[in-house]
Give the backbone structure.
Amino acid sequence: MELRPVELRIVLEPDPDTDPADAERLGRQLRDELRDLEVDGVEPVEGGEPPAGAKSGVLTSLTEWLVTLAGGGVLAPVIGTIRAFLTRGGGEHKVTVTIDGDTLELGRATDDERARLVDAFVRRHQPV
C-alpha cells in the first residue's frame, strides 16, 4: 500500500518586538533548517497582492511554508527541528504546524509540556 504525501503548513510568528529585518532572518533560518531535512519540498506560501507600484505580481511569505513529506515518515524530525529552533532563539517566537486542519502550536511552554504536545501530535499523524 502506497502512502500519500503529507502537507504541513508551517507558520513562524516572530516575537512582536522583533524588528522586520530580524523576522526575515529568522524566517530564512528556519526555512533553511527545514530544507536540510529529508523532505520532498519546502515552498513559501503565496501572500496577498503586492503594494501599488510594486514590480512583481505576487508576494511570497518569508515566515510561512508548505512542507511536503512522502507518507509522513519524517514528521518527527521536522517537529524536532522546529523545537530546537525555538529553544535556541531568544524572544517569544511561536511556530504553528497544521496537517489536515489539526494544528500544533509551539511557543511558550516548558520543555516537558512541549514534549507531551509534540508526542501526541506526531502519534495522530504517523502512517498506519
User: Anything to note?
Assistant: The longest helix spans residues 20-35.
